[in-house]
Amino acid sequence: MPAPTPSDPTFRSYSPPSATAYLRARGTYSTPLYSEILAHHLPRPTIPDPSPNPDLHTLLDLGCGPGNSTRDLALYFQRAVGADPSEAMIAAARAAGGRTGGGEAIRWVVGEAEGMEGVLERSGVEGGVDMITAGMAAHWFDMRAFWAQAARVLNPGGTVALWTVASLYCREWGPLHHFVHFSGAAPVLVACGALPLRRADAFVLRIDPAHPSAPLIQSHLFDLELSVLAPYSLPPLELSRNYYDALPLPWSSSPPEDSFPASLFVRKTWDRDGVLSNGEDFFGGSEEISTEDLERQLGTASMVTRWRAAHPELGGTARDCVKECVGRIKDVVGEERFRVGGGTALLLFRKRA
Fold this sequence. Notes:
With about 350 residues, the protein is an alpha/beta fold. It contains eleven helices and twelve strands. Strands 3-2-1-4-5-12-9 form a seven-stranded mixed beta sheet, with helices on both faces. Helix 3 links the parallel strand 1 and strand 2 (about 80-85). Helix 7 (about 215-230) packs antiparallel against helix 11 and helix 9 packs antiparallel against helix 11 (about 320-335). The longest helix is centred in the middle third of the chain and has 15 residues, at about 215-230. It starts with 15 loop residues before the first helix and ends with a strand.
């Protein structure tokens, strides 16, 4: 099989300062998400008290970036490997460190999801792995190669967990609400439900609708994502925006990978289209942030990175796309903090025992 063509041209070429900024700006995922993953794999999940479990010997976390989720999940395993194709991301992960629940240092490896066997060989891990995870990364994978490799390295009865934080829609505020969409210099009223929210790839925002300025804040984010950054999107991002609905599954691969029966597949989504599943808060929780936090987080999006590469004379200046967007939001909220959140999709697979 020929080597797959990389679909992510941005993160893998990150510089060390960019990787460090990513590590600091990006948060991790919620305990409820990890609980869902472990409950799928274990007869008696160990959350909320992490401890090594004989059914959780080895974790392989792919597309790990600087390792935020790897460090969280490693607490439940005896041994853990975090792999990413970006040398700078892995350097940032190594600098941050991390240990497993068994006290072993996490093994960080430069490598791709399509080459898991090589990743494990370079990490020194033998005997396969019990769980393969990928958070906000699978949409960049060559899934045919991914499933073939997963079938080889995952132990019988093992779990594959793939998740994303996906796009939301403006109708999240109710069918009668309108928001302002900026087209050029002229604000245009757009009816709710008419325009989907595109996301800055690995970063999704939904403003708490209880905030009195929520519609105006969101309109500025829509302007950034729908208008300014749209030319810098890439096809794999559509998979994430649509909650992995069209992510290639093992039995639909060519040839089909029959190690993962469709009968054991579980798909879960929360807060889809901005409708809170529990009516109270996001499954992943909501976060109170400042405009400075917002600027740091938006600045790590790959679409923003590509915009800045295309406009080197503007990046980092007052005319930077993120700075302009956040400046408009700051004009609305001042120093006030506001809450944000996003929807979640989780796909769980089991290998035949």
